[in-house]
Amino acid sequence: MKFGAAEQLARIVVGSAQLEGNLSLPEDATGVVLFAHGSGSSRHSPRNRYVAQELREGGLGTLLIDLLTAAEEREDTRTARLRFDIGLLAGRVEGASDWLAGNPATAHLPIGYFGASTGAAAALAAAAERPDQVRAVVSRGGRPDLAIPVLNRVRAPTLLIVGGQDTPVIEMNREALKHLEALKHHNIENRLEIIPGATHLFEEPGALEEVARLAREWFQERLKPYTGR
Predict the structure, then answer these.
(1) Distance between CA atoms of 65 and 52, rounded to whole angstroms?
(2) How far apart are alpha carbons 124 and 168 in whole angstroms?
(3) How far apart are CA 121 and CA 142, in angstroms?
């Protein structure tokens, strides 16, 4: 398998918004992971780009997308309002999922979500609305608690990754896991992984590498090509 994959600019229309993203597909990709960035971040985030590269080396395609338009980003910089509008952001994730499903290069690939910060809540809320489309979710330093009202409808196996020094966020993720675990009778695996010594941005030596390893294994196991109808 060849892992080199050129980035292609993707323009995705969701309602009245045109979003921009970067799609990269290694040869013989087994799935595609949509990245939902958190507040104050973008598809150019070096942390998420590093994780995306590791996923591609594992044979997975990636779509890194800005969930807000340039004008919305400017507004959010002033007001910090849109970054917490989980309904809006989840709708954008759903729209990007539809784009992947309609794109000939990715239509045959199962979809996973990788969410960071508030983007994790958006990813989980979108997964709740697309139980037959989304195969797996990974949250990095996320705020899944912001999606608690819909977590009991998430059917995708979900991995929550939190830094061991990120105490408030650990508790938020533990609470969210309880709501995800309401689906235990469906034999869905959900897990909380705490990386010792890591803070919220996983800037400590080896911390982001561990995030990438966990995410890669989670997606590789759960994103397999569709076979038949």
Answers:
(1) 12
(2) 20
(3) 7
For residue range 29-69, list pLDDT tens digits in order: 999 999 998 665 567 678 889 999 999 999 999 999 989 88
Q: What is the pTM of this model?
A: 0.92
Residue 152 identity (one-letter amino acid): N
User: What's the token pair of residue 184?
Assistant: 């235990």
**Structural domains of the chain, with CATH:** 7-222 (3.40.50.1820)
d(CA 46, CA 53): 10
Q: Which tokens belong to 16?
A: 């009245």
CA distances from 42 to 48, 115, 117, 152, 181 (A): 9, 12, 12, 28, 30
d(CA 101, CA 154): 19
Q: How far apart are CA 158 and CA 188, in angstroms?
A: 9
What confidence tens digit (pLDDT) does each residue in 178-215 have? 999 876 656 789 999 999 999 999 999 999 999 999 99
